[in-house]
Design a protein that fits this description.
About 30% of the residues lie in helices and about 0% in strands. It is an all-alpha fold. It has one domain: 30s Ribosomal Protein S18 (Irregular), CATH 4.10.640. The structure holds zinc ion (ZN). Zinc ion binds next to α1 and α3.
């Protein structure tokens, strides 16, 4: 073991909160898995487990269809926290 990890180990944040169901009407729940351009973050970066990643994908796709979150972010205004107005 020559190399040690510099950052803390990745873990599934939804397992930690014991999330059984993700509501697409509540985007603050799946904000961990959205990038600043509203893309779905891959599992290799977030550390989500497969079960919760599928839940997140379904919730985000439903929320996009329901116009709760945008499909694409405006190229000129990439904001730091896209969920500031949800609180
Ligand atoms: Zn999980």
């Amino acid at each position: 073991m020559a190399e040690r990890r510099k950052y803390s180990k990745k873990y599934c944040k939804y397992c930690e909160q014991k999330v059984d169901f993700l509501d697409y009407k509540n985007p603050s729940k799946f904000k961990f898995s959205l990038s600043e351009r509203y893309k779905i973050m891959p599992r290799r970066l977030t550390g989500n487990c497969k079960k919760h990643q599928v839940m997140v994908e379904n919730a985000i796709k439903r929320a996009r269809a329901a116009a709760i979150i945008p499909y694409v972010a405006d190229r000129k205004k990439v904001i730091d926290n896209p969920f500031a107005d949800f609180r």
